[in-house]
Each structure stands twice: as structure tokens, then as C-alpha cells.
Design a protein that fits this description.
The complex is a heterodimer of chains A (about 130) and B (about 140). Chain A is mainly alpha-helical and about 130 residues long. Chain A is built from six helices and no strands. Chain A has helices at about 1-5, 10-15, 25-50, 55-65, 65-95, 95-125. The longest helix of chain A is centred in the last third of the chain and has 30 residues, at about 95-125. The model of chain A has no long low-confidence stretch (mean pLDDT about 90). Classes of the chains: A mainly alpha (about 130), B mainly alpha (about 140).
Amino acid sequence: MALKMQSPLGRARGRGAAKSGIAHHWFMERLTAVALVPLMLWFVAAVIANFGASHAEISAFFGQPWNAALMIMTILFGLYHGISGLMIVLGDYIHGPAKHLTLALAVPALAVLAGIYLIVCVLILALGG
Amino acid sequence: MSEPRFSPHLAPYDNQLRRGRPLSPHLQVYRFALTMFLSITHRVTGVGVVLGTVMVMVWLGTAAAGPETYAAAQGFFGSWVGVFLILAWSAATLYHLASGIRFLMWDIGKGFGVEGARRSGIVLAVVWAVLTAVVWAIGFAAW
């Protein structure tokens, strides 16, 4: 039969009709996790440092190029990691293909929108809006 | 395997149990274990941190909008509700961060097994409590 015509390695490489496995998702979730360890430590520190800051102070903070760069990096990696996690949570708890598909499309779309909004805000502050 | 003891929670699954079939994870009949609590907390805090993005959007969005809008948002963040949300967000973030390092440790094959998971779980609980206490203390001192 067709199955025996293929070597086990060949089958594993092709991964059937899906053509891809979960390795990319798994790897990217870990990659962003490792990056987020220093980034979130920085971000929590930044939130504390700017707690109750005036508008001039917050503008000055993001006017520092490194702060703006780290904030944008935290937004990108954080939301990517957040989508990765939420997709697994959706897969575990949302039953019914229609409901699942709706949320599986809405979650990344909202995250991308939120990410672009946040980056634009950081740039406005950084460039002195 | 020993016969499962009768529990009213298990009544709907009586047929499954009598046939010796495994039962899906069922929250009410699990005996509490620190490891399972830490595991579900990792997921809950993960979702919480993502929801916290809304707060970050309010923070940076109002700052980008200008001093008046920003001052209104600062009024909210300085209120009891705002302070509570920031405390909850920071506690959840620090938990997910510390717990995430534990998961990464498992990913490279370290600390597997019941005893290893139990021990790293205790370390996680202590590290999280200390980290959160330090961050909150610094935050309140600076406030």
C-alpha cells in the first residue's frame, strides 16, 4: 500500500496533508519567551519609574531612543508571545469550529491592531508629539 | 489500578469508570497539589497579562494624545481601581515571568519528575512572592 512505499523518515518530513507541524509555533513561543525575560523586567521597572509621572516626564522618557526601542521591542515580542499563548488557550476551551475559527481570526487581528497602535503612540512620544 | 471511590461528582462518568476507561481531567475531583495550582496559575496570569495590554494602550495612548488627556488617565491610574489593576498586573506579570523560566528549564530537560517539579514549584512560589514584594515596595516608595 501507499504507506509502505514511503520510508518512515519521508513520512515524518512530509507530515501528511498538513505539510507542517507545530515545531515553528513551539519554537517561536520559546524564542519570544527568552527575549521577554529581560524585556519584561525592563518594562515593569519602566512602569514603576514612571508611576505618577507628568506628561513632560513621560515624553522625556520615551524621547530617549533606547527606551523607545525597548518599548517597541517589548510590544512586538509581547504580543507575538501573547497570541501564541491565547491560540493554545482557545484550542483547549473553545469548542465548535465556527466559534473557534471566529476567535482564532479575531485574536491575532486585534493583537496586530493593538501592536500598531502602541508603536505609533511610542513614536509620537519619541519624536515629540 | 485501584477501584475509584464513589463520588457524587463522578456519578455521570460511572459507566466510563466501570469499564476501566480513563477519565478526562476533572477539576472538582482532583486532590489539590501545588504543582497543578502553579500550572493553572501560569495560564491564568498569561491571559491576564495579555488583557493588561488594554491598560498599556490607555497609558501610551493618552500620553500620545496630549497633556490634558494624559492627566485624566493619570487620575484613573491613581484611583483605588487603577492602583489595584496595576498591582494585579505587576503580580501576574512577575508570576508568569518566573513560572515561564521554570517551563524553559523543563524545555532543556532539567528538573523533570515529581520531586524536581515539586521542588522547583516551591522555589517559584518563594521567588514570585519576594519579587512582587520588592517591586511593590519600590513602587509605593516612589509614589
